[in-house]
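Q: Got a minute? One more chain.
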Amino acid sequence: MPETRPSTDDGTVLNRALWDVRARIHGSVATLDPLVVDWPYGGGPHRETVTGTYAEPGLALPAQECVQYPYSIGEVVTAAATAGLTVKHLGEHEAAEFDPRGIMAPGADGRYRSPFGDSHLPVLYSLRAVSPDSA
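A: Always. Here it is, folded:
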């Protein structure tokens, strides 16, 4: 499947990692008990100094500024539609096979969930959008 990088009306390219568009862990949550939100939900660039990477959690790196764009689900879906893509599926998922923030305990099945009362909050979403030109 070729990578599609739609742009917004102002020409900003939605340059998100492919895994992030297809299945994104909700990055706003810092802790679950009590629920603490430490990350913006959409709204533009978020800057922080980091000394590691999600790709290799135990690897220490020199401190560097990292700029990320935490798009809301609405912003991602709207950008896909604005780019002329047809949304075929938008799903929310209550379990993930990884926890990049390290705040969720794995369940008996080894998957990570975000408990919320008697239920679970979605921790991932998936979006399938296709070009009208594709078969």
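A: The helical segments are 18-22, 73-82.
Q: Perfect, thanks.
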